[in-house]
Design goal:
glycosyltransferase, TIM Barrel, 3-stranded antiparallel beta sheet, alpha/beta, 8-stranded parallel beta sheet, about 15% strand, globular, RNA-binding, TGT-like_sf, 2 domains, Queuine tRNA-ribosyltransferase
Length: about 425
RNA sequence: GUGACCAUAGUUUAACGGUAAAACUGCGGAUUGUGGAUCCGCUAUCGAGGGUUCAACUCCCUCUGGUCACC
């Protein structure tokens, strides 16, 4: 069985449905992947995630390496067993954290020693071999190389692992962006080589069937990452280079991806003719709002992740079909809540439950939502929990926001199969 | 009852003879390969009355309220 099967191609766009096969089960695409950086989707446990029918979640190499350390997780039987999650997991390689920790390095040049950068308050130093960085936890010095990033991910035991890349800031000059991109390509080759050649690990993470996990082929799938910032030629060159390598999937990374949707759309339009259609396409960091999901799915993206629904939940920003302006009942009576919302709320599709107007609102967060939070609790109660900073607020809100995104993805997959994707998109945007 | 001190934003506190600063709260906004984090706006005619002065939250008097000490 191949890793990825396309099950339906939309007739009017690049949108498509598919299935990714992993040792921990199948994933229907296009899929939104909730983020669980530190081996937990904040405020939820694995039973909550199963109830939400999350198909796959993310964890982060950088954070788990620093704490508790991959050896401890490996010793506990791997990430799945460690966090009691038996469905697929994807680990990010840590490349993005290097970017976010060292944002301004390229402006000041690359020569010098780590102490210099430390003194400047910069937390990472990139060279051709790898990255030296200081921990955000205790300031201790660490180093990632393509080889170590893959080895850590082998020990963590996620189903899908990412190549170690360098994500450059968009305001870097073109010379540096090219340099970093070429380095990312060399690192991609090194990740592949290390991934394929590794023979054994001290402790093999457990597989769901009770057999031992085997490093390498067909057990963990490795994705390459296209970089090149917002330069057309660099993006095309990177797409060609990454596509030519033996990766199981193709990711598109960069500061703009997800953050700036106009740039994201352009980048996808540039690379789409180049990247192989039979591999999963993954835009990293996309999913800030419902409209973002439509934009990338329309351009043939199969996987995406974003911290937005979970982080927003913790800050009281709750997604909604219909923003009130008046009450949610009136919105329903309006006839088409989605259109009502699109016109009246700048298409943000969310409310801030902290707002005083929800103090005595006895309707659910979203009257059209079927999640357990909306079935059982009122806006007034959620408002109170947030004001009182009660821990239940975070869990109920996270359940709602994730349900909203995962359910929207189910609708999108169905619409693609019915060749009605663009019609569904019009309802939302 | 006597004496001392105090009264400034919802709360706790600043400053200054030239129309008031801050923290927290409150009311909004931001949030993108996760810090339950953080950031950004907005909110006061200074207990009441009178006096001195070009000008008083600031100095003086009275009242009201409070705190402490003594009887």
């Amino acid at each position: 069985m191949s890793f990825f099967t396309i099950t339906h191609q939309d007739k009017h766009s690049l949108a498509r449905t598919g299935v990714i096969h992993t040792a921990h089960g199948d994933i229907e695409t296009p899929v939104f992947m909730p983020v669980g950086t530190q081996a937990t989707v904040k405020s939820l446990d694995s039973a909550d995630l199963e109830n939400l029918d999350a198909q796959i979640i993310l964890a982060n190499t950088y954070h788990l390496h620093l704490r508790p350390g991959e050896d401890i997780i490996n010793d506990c039987g791997g990430l799945h067993k460690f966090m009691n999650w038996n469905r697929p997991i994807l680990t990010d390689s840590g490349g993005f954290q290097v970017f976010s920790l060292s944002k301004n390095i390229c402006k000041s040049g690359l020569s010098g020693n780590p102490d210099y950068y430390k003194d400047q308050g910069k937390l990472a130093l990139i060279d051709d071999e790898g990255v030296t960085f200081t921990s955000h936890l205790d300031g201790s010095t660490h180093r990632f190389t393509p080889e170590s990033a893959i080895e850590i991910q082998h020990k963590l035991g996620a189903d899908i692992i990412m190549a170690f890349d360098e994500c450059t800031p968009d305001d870097a000059d073109e010379k540096y962006t090219r340099e970093a991109m070429e380095r990312t390509h060399k690192w991609a080759e090194r990740c592949l080589t290390y991934h394929k050649n590794i023979k054994t690990l001290k402790h093999l993470p457990d597989m769901p069937d009770g057999k031992s996990w085997q490093a390498g082929k067909n057990k963990q799938f490795l994705f390459g990452i296209i970089q090149g910032a917002n330069h057309k030629e660099l993006r095309e060159e990177s797409a060609r280079a990454i596509s030519a390598m033996d990766f199981d999937g193709i990711a598109i990374g960069g500061e703009s991806v997800g953050f700036n949707m106009d740039a994201t759309k352009k980048i996808l339009d540039w690379v789409n003719p180049i990247i192989p259609k039979n591999k999963p396409h993954y835009t990293m960091g996309v999913g800030f709002s419902p409209s973002d999901l439509f934009e990338v799915v329309e351009r043939g993206v199969d996987m995406f992740d974003c911290v937005a629904p979970t982080r927003m939940a913790r800050n009281g920003a709750l997604f909604c079909h219909c923003e009130e302006r008046g009450t949610s009942d009136e919105a329903i009576q309006f006839g088409s809540p989605r259109l009502f919302e699109a016109r009246d709320n700048g298409n943000k599709h969310r409310i801030n439950i902290n707002n005083a107007k929800y103090r005595d609102d006895k309707s659910p967060i979203d009257p059209l939502c079927t999640c357990s939070t909306c079935k059982n609790y009122t806006r007034a109660y959620l408002h109170h929990l947030f004001k009182a900073e009660e821990l239940l607020a975070y869990r109920l809100a996270t359940i709602h926001n994730l349900h909203f995104f995962l359910n929207l993805m189910r609708e999108i997959r169905q619409a693609i199969k019915d060749n009605k994707f663009l019609e569904l998109k019009k309802e939302w945007i």
